[in-house]
Amino acid sequence: MNVTAIISEYNPLHKGHLYHIKTARKETNADYIIAIMSGNFVQRGTPAIMDKYARAEAALRSGVDLVLELPVMYATASAEYFALGGVALANTLGIVTHLSFGSEYGQADKFMEAANLLLHEPEEMKAPLKEALKEGLSYPAARAYAVKVSHPELADILEEPNNILGVEYCKALLKLKSNIIPHTIKRQGQDYHSETTDAGFASATGIRKLFGVESEENKRILESQLAPAAYELLNDHFEHAPLTEDDLSMLLRYKLITENRAHLTEYFGVNKELSNRIYKHLNDYESFSSFAELLKTKNITRTAINRALLHILLDVKAADVQAVTKRGCVDYIRVLGFRKEAAGLLKEFSDIPEIPLITNLSAAPVLCETDIRADQIYQMCASQKYGIPYQNEYQRKMLVV
Questions:
Q1: Which domain covers residue 296, as residue numbers?
Q2: Residue 67 pairs with which residues in a beta bridge?
Q3: Which residues have CB under 8 Å from 134's CB, separation 6+?
Q4: Is the confidence at residue 190, as pLDDT, over 70?
Q5: Are 98 and 65 in contact (CB under 8 A)?
Q6: Torsion over CA of 363, 368, 374 and 376, rounded to 10 degrees?
Q7: The domain that contains 54 carries what CATH number?
Q8: Which residue from 84, 116, 245, 397 could staple onto 288, CB 3.0 to 4.6 Å apart?
Q9: Cα–Cα distance between 310 and 305 in angstroms, integer?
Q10: Residues 4 and 97: beta-carbon distance below 8 Å
Q11: Residue 72 near residue 307 (C-beta atoms within 8 A)
C-alpha cells in the first residue's frame, strides 16, 4: 500500500494545490493521500485565512483522504521546525511511504544532497558561514551564502522559498532516519510571494489579498483560482474572513504588559536581543503589525518577529518545542477529518504505542492544551470582529465527508 503525505497550510486551497494533490497521487501511485495541515495559525506568524475545519473540508473534497493537524508549535515555526514537525508526524504514523512537496527545482535527488550537506555542515562550509553571520545576515541567508561558496552546484536550490522548505523536509527525513521516500513536483504558475492573480496558478499570497474586500471582480478571480470546494466554502466565509495579526493586537499588548520581563526569553523564538527590543519599544506599541515592523532589524526578519510575538501570545515555550523535537516524534495525532472511503486508514495507526489518536477533544490529553488555547483565541477574535457565534473547540466534531 502506498500512502503519500503532504505537509500543508492550504491557506487557502487553490488550483496549484489541487494540481499537486492530483499529480502526487498519480506519480507516487498513492492509494491514499494524507494532508498534515496547519491549524488556525500558520507559518507566517498570523491567523489562517479561514478556520482549520473549513480548510480541512476543502482538502477532503479536493482529493485528500485524511487531514491531520500539525501542532501549533510547529505550524508557526521556521522552515526547519515546520518541516521537522510535519515529517515527525508522518514518520510516527508508520504507514506513510512517500512525502510529496512542491518546489521550484523539481528533482528530489538534489534536495537530498543539499539536505545531507546542511545536516552535517562540513568543514568547508564553516568559514563562510561564520563570515556571513558576522556580517549580520540571518542564519538562513548566511547558510545559503556558505553553500554558494563551498558547493556552488547546489546554490540555486536555496534561493527559493519552496526549495528551502523541501530541503528542510529532506533534512528531517535524514535526521529521523526515516524510510519515507521524498517526492517533489515542480511548482506551476506564479512565484511563492507573487501578488499577481491574473495569470496561471496564483500564489496563496496573491489570493489572500482578495479576501475581506467583497466585490464581483474579486469573487470572479477567486472562483478562477481556488479549488472548487474551497470557493464554495468561501461563500460562507467571505464576509467574516480573514483574521489578521492585527486582530490579536489588544490580546498581545495585554500579554506583554503583564509578562515578567525576565521570563520573556522562555518563549520559542525570543532571544535576549529581541526581548530587550520588545521592552525598549513597548510604550510605542500601537498594533501587532506596526510593533513587529518596529522590532525588525537587519538580522531579525519581520516573519521571525511575527512568529515570536505569536508564540508569546499563545504561550509556546522553547523548552516544550525542544523536548518534543529531541524525541523525534509527536506526542499525539489529532484527526480533523477523513473521507468515508478512507476510514480504514485510521485503523492502520490507531494502535501506535504511547501516541494518542485524538478524534474527540473531550478525551484529549493535557498535551493538546497549547493547540486548544490557540483555537480558543482564534475563535474569540473571529466572534468579536464579525459578530458571529463563538465556536467552542470542545464541541466541534471531526469531519467525515
A1: 245-319
A2: 35, 337
A3: none
A4: no
A5: no
A6: 20
A7: 3.40.50.620
A8: 245
A9: 8
A10: yes
A11: no
135: left (phi over 0), alpha (psi -120 to 50) or beta: alpha
What is the dihedral angle through the alpha carbons of 191, 183, 337, 387, rounded to the nearest 10 degrees? Answer: -10
Instruction: Tell me the per-residue pLDDT of 141-175, one tens digit each, with 9 for 90 and over.
Output: 888 899 989 999 888 888 888 899 999 999 999 99
> Which residue in the block uniquely carries the three cell numbers 498570523?
46
Is 389 inside any structural domain? yes
Residue 276 amino acid letter: N
Cell readout for 127 is 568559514
Quote the CA–CA distance of 109 and 38 in Å, as a whole number: 27
Task: Give the DSSP letter string of 144-168.
Answer: HHHHHHH-GGGGGGGSSHHHHHHHH
The residue with cell 467525515 is 400
Percent of the chain clearing pLDDT 90 (strictly above): 64
> Is 36 among the domain residues?
yes
| β partners of residue 7 | 36
Helix or strand (DSSP H, E) at 3: strand 3-8
Decide if pLDDT at 363 tops 70. no
φ/ψ of residue 106, rounded to 5:
90, 15
Q: Is residue 118 part of a domain?
A: no
Average pLDDT, the chain: 90
Distance CA 198, CA 250 (A): 36
For cell 498513492, name the residue.
Answer: 30
Q: What would the pLDDT profile of 248-304 be if each residue is shown by its tens digit? A: 999 999 999 999 888 999 999 999 999 999 999 999 999 999 999 999 988 788 999
**CA distance readout (Å), 281 to 47, 139, 253, 322, 330:** 24, 25, 12, 29, 37
The three three-digit cell numbers of residue 243, written as one number:
483574521
Q: Are residues 98 and 24 in the same domain?
A: yes
Three-state DSSP state, 397: coil
Place of cell 489541487: 18
Q: How many domains does the chain have?
A: 2
Locate the DSSP E strands across 113-210. Answer: 181-186
Q: How far apart are CA 163 and CA 269, in angstroms?
A: 23
Give the residue carrying C-alpha cell 550537506: 117
